[in-house]
Amino acid sequence: KEFWHRLRRRELGVFEPQSSIYISWLFVVSVAFGYNAVIIFLRCVFPYENDSNRHIFFIFDYLCDGIYIMDMIWFKMRLKFIMNGEWVEDTKLIRAYYVRRKRFISDVLSLLPLDLLYFTYGVDRPLLRLLRLNRLFKVPTFWEFFSRVDAITKFPYFIRIIHTLLYKMYLIHLSSCAYYLMSWYEGFGSTVWTYDNEGNAYLRCFYFAFRTATSIGGRMPKPSNDYERIYMIVSWLMGVFVFALLIGQIRDIVATATQNKTLYKDIMNKTVRYMRGLCLPHHVQKRVRLWLAYTWTQQKTFDENRILDLLPLKMRTDLALSIHYHTLSRVELFKDCERTLLRDLVLKFRSVLYLPGDYICKKGDIGHEMYIVNKGQVCVMDPNDSMKVLVTLSEGSVFGEISILGISGYNRRTADVRSVGYSYLFVLSKADLMETLKNYPEYKENLMQRVRRLVKCRETVDDDIKAMDEIDVECIVNPGQRRPITPRLVQTVIQVMSCSSADSHVSQRLLSRTSRSSRSSTGTPTAVPQTPTLLTPTGLIPTLTPTSTATRFLFPSIDSSGGQPVVDIGVDVVVEEPTHDNDCQPLDDSPVVGGDPFDDNQSVVDNQLINDIVYDL
């Protein structure tokens, strides 16, 4: 697809040797080479080509020749190569490099048009098909295809077996052609050993050659002359060596594929024998076997560091960065730090597997490591209740980063952390962190300051939560008591004015107004928000301007200490200090419950009534 896209744009460009487009093209060339390798001898020996189908063979012949030409011009001359450690992409240099190689000579020889002699000596002569044998000079491309596929495939052993099987089948193909040719030379059916020219010629000859190559002696027809004996000897030797080569490759493939499994079984057996020798408890042995089995299932190795040590430092660093960098950069302590520091830190991480129910750390333990959850889940347990889960940490979560920095009072674990299932954690030890920070002294001080700020912030949050827990909220409203039918402010004003005969007309007006609403004003009171100067947001009671003789009223408790009435309404209200006779009775000291000024159904007192009251006061 990429090739045709480049072709439509008329920009073929260059190709990498390990690119998918080039390997796909090598497969096409290998198919063309296989066609020539099989059909040339088939057409030369067996009588399958005739006037009715000769043109079909010619079409396939020249189609393969066209593939050879395209391989030389469009691919081999655009294939990048390495010079002085760098990829060369200049097409002129690539062409010059290709022309100087031996591959160019073999490609040219494979395209020599010797088959044009068909038309000189006659196309009906089968032996002239051997003029196309030069097409087999393309075999280096066939080898290159299997070599590159073997390097990139996930199943290299399977590719190697197929490669060997193709060699084996091709040799049997050549042997079947030789058997038919000898039978034709001696005469079909002239001896017991020769082919009797019945049935499908190629299939019968291929079957005979296959039996000869894969078995020695047996119930095979006995040769009757020296030519037949020579054929049998060559076929047996070819079969023995090629078949032995095939069996040997299969054995190596199976041994290599099962090498790690054999190692696993050996380690498991040694571990079990060692635990039994120590008479360890059964549950301990079971957990050890469980760890070995799960580790092998997931990683196919017990020592991944040994594999990584084979890589150069730069490649190990890049590999570790691709795994840990994104997670490490999200840790609060390492945000906005230098990338070089993170590159050094990721090499210090190691992977640890925890089984279901394993405790990663316990409360009170001294923290020597920080953890990053790679796979699985871990839960933080309540220190006071081991069965209560405070929080569950999933992939990418980090914990224990503060305790490894040696802050006084914060180097111990504050809770138990337990693995929920099979959990893989990346672990960074305190020693590795401090060793890395030696090369970054300026960041080490910055890191310590950041840790102190985080600790201080956590202490502040903890103090606030503790203070909130200790607050005893006093209930200022009794929800079970029904609300008075008349707002308490109006009742208070009536009691104040009833002490003076001069205000009797006002009190009478209040009684007449409020009595009409006494049957409808009921409900559950609520607390009244405090506002400095506004008595109610509904506008029923206006704001009063304070004077020099103003007194503060606080509601709902009323007393007369000092001769000054005090009304608690939950807001600050100022009115003129009233004067009353000595025979005036003080107001009732018993607590009352105020109404809700935000409830429109609480009162039907209008603005005019309140204005009259204020004016009279």
Question: What features would you describe in this structure?
Answer:
The chain has 617 residues and is α+β, with helices and mostly antiparallel strands. It folds into five domains: 152 residues; 104 residues, Orthogonal Bundle (Helix Hairpins), CATH 1.10.287; 42 residues; 159 residues, Jelly Rolls (Sandwich); 129 residues, no CATH class. 50% of the residues lie in helices and 9% in strands. It contains 20 helices and 14 strands. It has a four-stranded antiparallel β-sheet with strand order 3-10-5-8. A four-stranded antiparallel β-sheet has the order 4-9-6-7, with no helix packed on it. A two-stranded antiparallel ribbon has the order 1-2. A hairpin with a 7-residue loop joins strand 6 and strand 7. Helix 2 packs across helix 7 and helix 8 packs across helix 9. The longest helix is centred in the middle third of the chain and has 32 residues. The radius of gyration is 49 Å and the shape is elongated. The relative contact order is 0.05. About 17% of the residues have low confidence.
Brief descriptors of the model:
617 residues; alpha+beta; Helix Hairpins; 5 domains; four-stranded antiparallel beta sheet; 20 helices
